[in-house]
Amino acid sequence: MSFENIGLSESILRAVEKQGYDKPSPIQEKVIPLILAGKDVLASAQTGTGKTAGFTLPMLQILSEAQQSGKKPVRALVLTPTRELAAQVHESVESYSEFLDISSTVIFGGVKQMKQVARIKKGIDILIATPGRLLDLVDQGLLFLDKVEFLVLDEADRMLDMGFARDINKVLALLPSKRQNLLFSATFSSEIKTLAKKFMHYPTLVEAEPENSTVDKIIQTAYRVDTNDKLPVLINMINDGNWKQVLVFTRTKHRANKIADKLNRANISASAIHGNKSQGARTKALEDFKNSTIRILVATDIAARGLDIPLLPHVINFELPNIPEDYVHRIGRTGRAGASGEAISLVAHDEVDYVASIEKLLGEEFERKIIEGYEPQLKDARPTPQGNGGANRQKSRPKSSPPSKSRAETQLNWKKKKKFLGKK
Ligand code: ADP
Ligand code: MG
Predict the structure, then answer these.
(1) Could you write out the DSSP letters of every residue in 146-196?
(2) Looking at the CA of 158, which ligand is closest?
(3) Minimum CA distance residue for ligand 1 atom 26
């Protein structure tokens, strides 16, 4: 199928062509005709499969077809879990609607609301928002949602993970009952289905074939290293491979900051992206990473979810996620669009349980590797003794590998290791 015969207008096709898209992706091929036919659609496809255009293109088609007179109310509402996603979706909507008389804007927390409100007052067709700020503006009487014809929940699974269920319900109560509903998600959990039942009208279920080939193309390796060795190992890997664009995942915001700091001190340009950073800082970090001003983006799971970072050759799990599904989302950042990628996990003794749950979810076992010079000293899954963990660790080092090992020696070992790293 081509974009030309899927039912989109000339103006939209022009914008699509400008983006350089040859043909619809599998999920787009399925959902675009359904949405154009006015159906409620519940769609799931993995990250990076083009879900945004999947709902935006037909939505633009319908909105631009229907006659409008006078001041434009909010006709379409797109809810996303994070500010970055809202900004990203807005950017896509803007480019796809370039040749249409359709206006859109984005609102989210963390920036001053005056400008956002002024923009809405001028009248808007499409509003992209995070649930929090949206409800804020509604509560202040600055925004009305009683003219919404289209509701899109994007990354719905993440919104539920982030505890937005109540906010979503509040928003639903503000909308007119006659409207078209779209729900897009990376996964189809039972929670998603329950949510869908609540507000969708006989939704058509669409699932893009899980592209196993994509996951197959990702080389996944788990290195068993001690927590204290993770940073030198990471720095060595980056330097050794001369990696230019690496996404590093941590479990906590604090650790994300710390790693970014330490990488910068090792002359590897890095920024952290997480929920405690100001909106400006998050946008800048993402931009810098995309245009290669910085080499490393250190992210927490929530901050990274759904972000469109194309062609990423390396994803590093500095810490394993405690939610196994997050691992799948993380490694989905590499090997996108048919390119091959590498996902590396650094596994400390207290993370082997996480590996087990991930393996269970994937239905396959990781190959555990050890790095010479960084052999783990702590036994798997045995809790570190409180208070003197470090001391014990030093004592337990074998004589052949004294803790006072010089930097030169470490590097030597690392060089030896190089061959090993290169091999699958
Ligand atoms: P998802 O929401 O499924 O994670 P996105 O909507 O963010 O994916 O799209 C991922 C990337 O794919 C974006 O860079 C987008 O421009 C690109 N893309 C979308 N549709 C197509 C297409 N039909 N052909 C080529 N690239 C596309
Ligand atoms: Mg998306």
Answers:
(1) TT--EEEETTHHHHHHTT-HHHHHHHHHHS-SS-EEEEEES---HHHHHHH
(2) 2
(3) 21
8-13's contacts with Cβ under 8 Å and 24+ in sequence apart are 8/32, 8/57, 8/58, 8/61, 9/61, 9/64, 9/65, 11/64, 11/99, 11/100, 12/57, 12/60, 12/61, 12/64, 12/96, 12/99, 12/100
Say yes or no: CB of residue 47 within 6 Å of ligand 1: yes
Mean pLDDT on 113-141:
88
Residue identifier of the C-alpha nearest atom 18 of ligand 1: 50
192, 231: one domain: no
**193 and 227 within one domain:** no
Nearest C-alpha neighbor of 260 from the set 218, 220, 224, 303: 303
User: Does residue 54 have its Cβ closer than 6 Å to ligand 1?
Assistant: no
Mean pLDDT of 126-143: 92
Q: Give this prediction's pTM.
A: 0.64
Count of structural domains, the chain: 2
Tokens of 168: 């979503």
CA of 98 to the centre of ligand 1 (A): 17
Percent over 70 (pLDDT), the chain: 83
Q: Is 51 in the pocket of ligand 1 (CB under 6 A)?
A: yes
Nearest to 64 by CA among 154, 144, 126, 4: 126
Contact 53 CB / ligand 1 (< 6 Å): yes
Range of 368's domain?
218-379
| Atom 9 in ligand 1: residue holding the nearest Cα | 50
In a mutational test of the pocket of ligand 1, which residue from 4, 8, 51, 52 has the highest number of ligand atoms less than 8 Å from its CB?
Answer: 52
pLDDT in tens, 174-195: 999 999 999 999 888 888 888 9
Same domain, 174 and 310: no
Give yes or no for residue 214 CB within 6 A of ligand 1.
Answer: no
Q: Which ligand approaches the C-alpha of residue 15 most closely?
A: 1
pLDDT tens for each residue of 11-58: 999 999 999 998 999 999 999 999 999 999 999 988 788 999 999 999
Measured from the alpha carbon of residue 155, the closest ligand is 2
